Automatic annotation (TrEMBL):
Gene3D superfamilies: Immunoglobulins. Residues 141-151 have a biased composition (Basic and acidic residues). It comes from the Bacteria. It comes from Bacterioplanes sanyensis. This is CARDB domain-containing protein. Residues 132-151 are annotated as: Disordered.
Amino acid sequence: MLHVFGRWLCLLILSLGLLACGGDSSRYNLAVETLTAEVEHTQYGDDVTLQFTLNSKGFDKGEVDVHFFLLSADELQQDHLIEEELAELHALAADHFPLDGKSTQHTLSVRIPEDVAGGDYQIVSYVDPNNLYNEDNENDNSPHPEHSLDEYPHAPIHVVAAPDHDHQLSNVQLGISQLILDKPGLQLAEGEIHRAEIIGHMDVRYHGSVEGVVKVLGEIDINGQWQPVHFWSVDEGANQHGGEYLDSMLVTLPLSEQANHVAFDINIDDAYIDALYQNYDAIQNNEVTIRLTLEDATGVNQAEHSDENNSVVFSVPLYFFEGEADAQPASVADAESAFKQLPGQQLLQPQVANINYAQDFNASYGNQSKFAVGVDLHGQLLLVPVVIPGARIVGEGDVFAYFFNARNTLFGISFDGSAYSNGQNTGYSTEMVIFNNTVFEDENYTAKYEKSWDRSWEEEKVLAQARFFVGPIPMQVEAGVSGNLGFELAVGYNAELYGGGDLFHVDFGAFGRGGISLLIASGGVQAVFNLIDNTFSLDSTAGFALASSEQASPHIYYSTELADDIDAVSGQFGLYADVKGIKWCKKLFIPYPCGSKTTRYDLWLYQTPSVINKTWTLLEKEGQVDI
């Protein structure tokens, strides 16, 4: 028995001796053991994926903070024997990672800052910078003066610096899915302005040492030749519609690492529309091609770094609207579309002719990955002059929004009023939906009617959540809209059918709330942001007059006007983080943490004037037709 105990004691002493002579005696330790980057050569603004091994020996619950930094390897080579603070230091990321008591593999995407000086760099890590965990060895949480270059994990990488003077155009997105033009020769109503044909936005960025001013030019491909187009501007205030079309846009680009959101609202000259129509084939796929180009307008005598990123060419499907003249139904089904069939009623015999004045408009404004808003508008006046004379007035509007790529219906409203000489299918219906819930509806069908509504609501709704990096710090953000909406509409029929008023008015701003779960940072949302302010108005009448001394035959007289006043996507919406960062020093070619300092980071999702600001008439018609 003593013999066995002696052998056990010898083995214990031997093992303790081995540990003392160089074995790892740490029972509790946190360290990044390996660190690599997917590329060895990159440039400012690029995303780089890091792969690293995190050892959490002895800790199997909770999470630990790991920070990543970009240090200048060129500066480390300019070494001295005394401690010096590193002049160039970039915080890349700070995030939580789970503890499970062993070595685990992780990946993390980091963005190379745009203010790098350029050259050779090292990406290094710092585990548990706030010393929340008691470890047996704290010296391997980051590079340490006792280390040699081969003893601390780092990823070598070469970074190309931003150019000295360069404008860049990218990420063109359209607010329309197709371009529908009026057939040449269609007479526009008096007071109707030629509305925007092509709406969208682009990202414009400037790198350099002066505040950038850039001119944006637009061209359209007409029979193989580039011809100039015009941009709507609200800055001039030149006419009753609050702006005018100009040959170009002047955009000021602040000295910033972030792209500038620039909206465009393009008008195509009538001469170009004529040329497009001459080559239009309704049975083929037709497209129109547009080129946007940046021109340096800073006024400095400095060459552009590259012209290759100054223009973008894009195409959009093209269709022509042939007009709304007297229409003979092609089939019974087409004629039946003039009527509203009520439950329990027999559909009237279809009429042999009708006149249909209608206008549709839909477009979105903004960047869907941030905030965007869209409108879908429709108005219609349908006249049935024969057999069973009648008329129908329709107005509809929808507003939808994108928050962080998530589509949300803010509200929708519809009005449908009709009157026919035999009294059947005479009446109205209306409905309003807010955030997918029907909040108001009314319907009444009778020989005569009169009704008015004046309703309003004030609403607030969180629409989406997303995670952003504000500098190196992750922030969880929720955003939504708050504001008011309603409609003020009067309808009726007593020998004259009418519907008029604001079919809807909506005024929504975007709000946000942000939170940071890291001890080293505080932050939130900074926003003064108008998402949409829009009024869609309807004013339509249709009267039924008998023959008189002044009028030889009975007839229907009519008028209709659809107008829209829109101001969408303007203001500032950004995130900020105040970060207690790490100060780094060097000595004998080795970098290491040597203190702390606070840094402010801003991430602006928007800093933009109104993406669209216009008052315009969609449709305006009046006249009479014999019964």
